[in-house]
């Protein structure tokens, strides 16, 4: 998605340790016009009318998933990284290691929001090592639901996540795939 790539080049910041900061337009402050175009592009890439839910993980994926959902006309469900008193009843559970935060989270989702009748599209902001996405896919499998695919805004193509997901036969669409990244620059996969 050329518009996204241009925005990453213009306003993204490459930090040491293969960290790309896009917080000025994607995951802290959000450019809604850009994210609206991202939502349209996900709908174009996932044209199936079978999709009944969009699943993401808190926190950065929620806004993107919500805006995309308006083009699918389905609800968004998000997995939480912490148990709270607001979650009652049975939950699906998995563990996810965050590349950015260098922390393992216990991720949960209430069973009342996902079941075997659902056809699920996962949407998230980043894909690096694939841990968060694999955790969400585990929850979908545990629910007995059907995985329709995964839409990622930015994939770090030089890390293993995308390869792992594709090798598992998941329809993965990444809108911008970073081929190389140094402490000062990046290149995109064409």
Outline of the structure:
The chain is of the alpha/beta class and 190 residues long.
Explain this structure.
Residues 23-156 form the Phosphoribosyltransferase domain. The protein has 190 residues and is of the alpha/beta class. The protein has helices at residues 2-11, 32-45, 60-72, 131-143, 161-167, and strands at residues 13-15, 19-21, 53-57, 76-79, 91-98, 103-110, 119-127, 146-156, 172-181, 186-188. It has a single domain (2-82, 89-188), classed as Rossmann fold. Helix content is 30%, strand content 34%. The chain is globular. The N and C termini lie close together (10 Å). The model has no long low-confidence stretch (mean pLDDT 92).
| SSE series | HEEHEHEEEEHEHEE
β-strand percent reads: 25-35%
Tell me about the biggest sheet? 6 strands, mixed
Number of strands: 10
Task: Please work out how many helical segments DSSP would assign.
Answer: 5
Shape: globular
Q: What is the CA-CA span between the terminal residues?
A: 10 Å
Low-confidence segments, ≥5 residues, pLDDT <50? none
Strand arrangement, largest sheet?
Answer: 4-3-7-8-9-10
| CATH class (first level) name | Alpha Beta
Radius of gyration: 16 Å
Proportion in helices: 25-40%
Structural class: alpha/beta
Number of domains: 1
Assembly state of the chains shown: single chain
Task: Let me know the average pLDDT.
Answer: 92
The CATH topology: Rossmann fold
Named at the architecture level, the CATH assignment is 3-Layer(aba) Sandwich
